[in-house]
């Protein structure tokens, strides 16, 4: 039962992506061979396990031990994504956006912006990028969320075009600390620029 609980969690689509080329052969104990498309894991094993343990903690569920979870993921090996290019161009563009922001901060530092401000901004950008690559996916689910940043229906609605809006059956009263931190970092820098 605990194994099924873990497998159903890690089999969710935001942890894996099917590659458009290549196949893999899965050999069963009966000797039968199944041909499957290649799958690339988009999240590292340690992040998957941390998210699972956090999920179990919030549900009050007693999971398998950490070392057992590691062994399960080792047996269920898939390729680890090294480069986003060609697999997920939206994610690749997002990563390039963070790289561009880092370069801007570097240029501001060379132009005389305070070193402490630049270090803090780079750290916040790095944390935001890591959050969007890992934990954010786990928060955005099919069900509605009382956090506007995690509610798909709310987030995908166009505020200016009624043809592309959907109403929610709930209020958005919660905030995500990580989403707010990233938004504040980007908004503060865009509005005020670096302190001089």
Could you write a compact summary of the structure shown?
The chain has 196 residues and is mostly helical. It has helices at residues 2-10, 45-59, 66-75, 89-110, 115-133, 135-139, 152-155, 177-192, and strands at residues 16-27, 33-41, 79-80.
How is this structure best described in words?
It is a single chain. With 196 residues, this protein is mainly alpha-helical. It has two domains: 2-80, no CATH class; 89-192, no CATH class. The protein contains eight helices and three strands, in the order αββααβααααα. The longest helix has 22 residues, at 89-110. The termini are far apart. 9% of the residues are buried. The model is unreliable at 79-87 (pLDDT under 50).
What characteristics describe this protein?
mainly alpha; 196 residues; single chain
Count of discrete domains: 2
Shape: globular
* Structure summary, number of beta strands: 3
The helical percent reads: 40-55%
Strand percent estimate: 5-15%
Structural class: mainly alpha
What gyration radius follows from the Cα positions, in whole Å? 21 Å
Mean pLDDT: 76
The neighbouring-strand order within the major sheet is 1-2-3
The H-and-E topology, N to C, reads as HEEHHEHHHHH
Could you tell me how far the N terminus lies from the C terminus, measured between alpha carbons in angstroms?
Answer: 59 Å
- Characterize the largest beta sheet: strand count, sense, and whether it forms a barrel: 3 strands, mixed
Q: Tally the helices: what do you get?
A: 8
